[in-house]
Each structure stands twice: as C-alpha cells, then as structure tokens.
Design goal:
It is built from 3 helices and no strands. By secondary structure, the chain is mainly α. It has one domain.
Length: 73
C-alpha cells in the first residue's frame, strides 16, 4: 500500500471515529432535566443512548487499531 493510500485510510478512519463519537455530544443531562420537568419518561431513550455510546466505543477501538496498523506499513 502506498504512502498516499495509507494516509487516505487514516483520514477515513479518523472521520469514522469523529462521526461515531458524536453520540457522546447529545446533551443527555439537559434532556433528562427537561423531560423530568415535564414528567416525560425517557428511561428507554436513555438506555438506548447508553447502548449506542457503548457500541460506538467498540467501533472507535477497532478504527484506532486499524489506524495503528496503517502506520506499520
């Protein structure tokens, strides 16, 4: 694989990491506060968000491993 291809692969993997990590940016504290103030149950929504974040970190880990592998070539 050429240096250019490795760099392109790293850019794509870094973009994947940034995109997947955006679930962490959801303002969950504010959502919980507002839903509580209006007596709206978001228990399942919150659980789904937590699961999404957990799965996202798995994807990030794999992408980081592949970025490191690209550095070795």
């Amino acid at each position: 694989m050429s240096s250019y291809e490795n760099e392109e692969r790293r850019r794509e993997l870094f973009q994947l990491i940034r995109d997947v990590s955006e679930c962490e940016e959801i303002p969950m504290a504010a959502i919980r506060e507002l839903s509580s103030a209006h007596v709206i149950d978001i228990t399942n929504y919150h659980k789904a968000w937590e699961a999404l974040c957990a799965e996202g970190w798995k994807v990030v880990g794999i992408a980081e491993d592949r970025m490191e592998a690209a550095d070795e070539y």
